[in-house]
């Protein structure tokens, strides 16, 4: 009888432990499910065709906000921060998706950090190819943006050793998702990164082919030699 009582007591203890563990995991599972639902809905919205709207800007100045810096100089191995900004149409937004184009042989994508208007938002793992990266970011908790324009976060790139003389970063396409639907946009936003260690072009700046001061036939010579005119003199 004592053995049976002990077995039953052990079973009850294990059952309580399982119940407690289930209760502890419930909020985590619920939050994870909410995130999956939000991202699934956002992905569906962002791939649904909709009207064109105002779009995005890229800025190379680390100061928050658009400082209008579209070109900068770096050395291979240095990190470059590129701020992503909504130029309009962000009011009511709950998330966005954007594709950024670049040459992965010249620039190495290091990550994206949501910020500014999107501080606290969650991003799905980036989808990268040799020529672009796609970022999807969503606000959890039912909050929507109340501002129409502003910073959305920052991309980080590393200048590759094989960067060459310069590399470009541009917006390929994007979408703003809201509770009402999706606003897709296109943008011609582009920034350029210049390599300060790159060798100058062959011949040097301002020199025509053949070196400075060189003209075909030598200085003061017209075709056929000095003083020569077609058909002979006179």
List keywords for this structure.
234 residues, alpha+beta, Immunoglobulin-like, 8-stranded mixed beta sheet, disordered C terminus
Low-confidence stretches: 1-7, 25-29, 31-53, 208-214, 216-234
Beta fraction: 25-35%
CATH architecture of the domain at 56-195: Sandwich
- Shape descriptor reads elongated
Mean pLDDT: 77
- Please outline the major beta sheet: 8 strands, mixed
Q: What is the N-to-C order of secondary-structure elements (H for helix, E for strand)? A: HEEEEEEEEEEEE
Separation of termini? 139 Å
Helix/strand-derived category reads alpha+beta
Helix content: 10-25%
Rg, alpha carbons? 30 Å
CATH topology of the domain at 56-195: Immunoglobulin-like
> Treating each run of at least 4 consecutive H or I residues as one helix, how many helices?
1
Quaternary organisation of the protein chains = single chain
What can you tell me about this protein's structure?
With 234 residues, the protein is an alpha+beta fold. The protein has a domain at 56-195: Immunoglobulin-like (Sandwich). The chain has one helix and twelve strands; from the N terminus they run H-E-E-E-E-E-E-E-E-E-E-E-E. Strands 2, 4, 6, 7, 8, 10, 11 and 12 form an eight-stranded mixed beta sheet that branches. Strands 1-3-9-5 form a four-stranded antiparallel beta sheet, with no helix packed on it. Strand 10 (166-178) and strand 11 (181-185) form a beta hairpin. The protein is elongated, with a radius of gyration of 30 Å. Mean pLDDT is 77; it is low at 1-7, 25-29, 31-53, 208-214 and 216-234.
């Amino acid at each position: 009888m004592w053995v049976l009582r002990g077995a039953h007591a052990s079973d009850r203890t294990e059952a309580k432990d399982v119940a407690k563990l289930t209760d502890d995991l419930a909020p985590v599972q619920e939050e994870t499910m909410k995130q999956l639902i939000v991202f699934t809905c956002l992905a569906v919205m962002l791939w649904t065709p909709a009207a064109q709207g105002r779009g995005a800007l890229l800025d190379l100045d680390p100061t928050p906000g658009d400082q209008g810096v579209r070109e900068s100089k770096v050395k291979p191995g240095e990190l470059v921060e590129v701020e992503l900004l909504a130029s309009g149409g962000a009011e009511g937004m709950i998330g966005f998706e954007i594709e950024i184009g670049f040459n992965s042989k010249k620039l190495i994508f290091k990550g994206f950090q949501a910020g500014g208007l999107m501080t606290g938002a969650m991003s799905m793992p980036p989808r990268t190819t040799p020529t672009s990266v796609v970022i999807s970011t969503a606000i959890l908790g039912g909050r929507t943006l109340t501002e129409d324009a502003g910073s959305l976060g920052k991309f980080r790139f590393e200048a590759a050793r094989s960067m060459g003389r310069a590399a470009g970063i541009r917006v390929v396409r994007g979408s703003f998702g809201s509770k009402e639907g999706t606003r897709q946009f296109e943008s011609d936003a582009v920034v350029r990164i210049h390599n300060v260690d790159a060798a100058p072009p062959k011949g040097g700046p301002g020199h025509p082919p053949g070196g400075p001061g060189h003209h075909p036939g030598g200085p003061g010579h017209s075709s056929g030699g000095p003083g020569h005119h077609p058909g002979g003199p006179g």
